[in-house]
Description:
Largest sheet: 2 strands, antiparallel
Number of helices: 10
Strand content: under 5%
Mean pLDDT: 83
Strand order of the largest sheet: 1-2
Radius of gyration: 22 Å
Number of domains: 2
Shape: flat
Number of strands: 2
Helix content: 55-70%
Order of helices and strands: HHHHEEHHHHHH
Distance between the termini: 39 Å
Structural class: mainly alpha
Amino acid sequence: MKVSFGQYLPGSSFIHRLDPRTKLLATLAFMVLVLLIKSFSAYALTAVFLAAVFISAHIPFKYVLRSLRAVLFIIAITFVINIFFFQGKELLWSWKFIHIYKDGIIFSAKMALRVISLVIGASVVTYTTTSVNLTDGLEALMRPLKIVRFPVHEAAMMMGIALKFIPIFADETDRIIKAQTARGSDFDSRRLIERVKSYIPVLIPLFISAWRRADELAQAMNARCYRGGSGRTRYRVMKFSKLDLIALLVFLAYGAGIILLTYVFSVP
């Protein structure tokens, strides 16, 4: 089970050297822009933009496919549901209570492209940013919440730890499944009930492993006298550079293109 989300790919590319705050803000703005897209031309521009980002970061294309592998089922279900339940003007096919419209197919395709764009865009951050830098960036961006006494450091620490453990637990699950398969468990059964039952011996040791790792991490943090974010200093101080300014200008150009295609020229 190869899960790439949360995995960091070491490198020295232009994208890798950006400030984590720049990447997090750009990712958040990218998600908002994708939700505003209404035309295929804007999705084509998004595809070109994402391809340029992955090429600039020297990320192999296979990692793009791995990012989508975990959400393929969600994309397929979303596509099918929208086709069967979306009503339009031009009816293409009908059988009893099932009606498929041309507008439904177009809407389903746009929804699938939206999910794909969001997943690929979000994966760029984890591929090019270490969990430590992600935690520092999140904490810096959430710092204004300290006014309302929100535990910013602790929240950022939990998010960073969660991202760090995603690929670890994926590998752990893969090892447990292989061990149970060697003991005769059938994970490829066509019966849904039998298939669900076969995963019970996987969930129990996985839960025990997660609990053990959490306990070991807590003990390690206590041994190092961790007491939260109060009074802590940093070995590396984050600073915006010319690279961040260039990246923001490029992203603004992409955002302007999306707005023009979607709301000004209304290109289909």
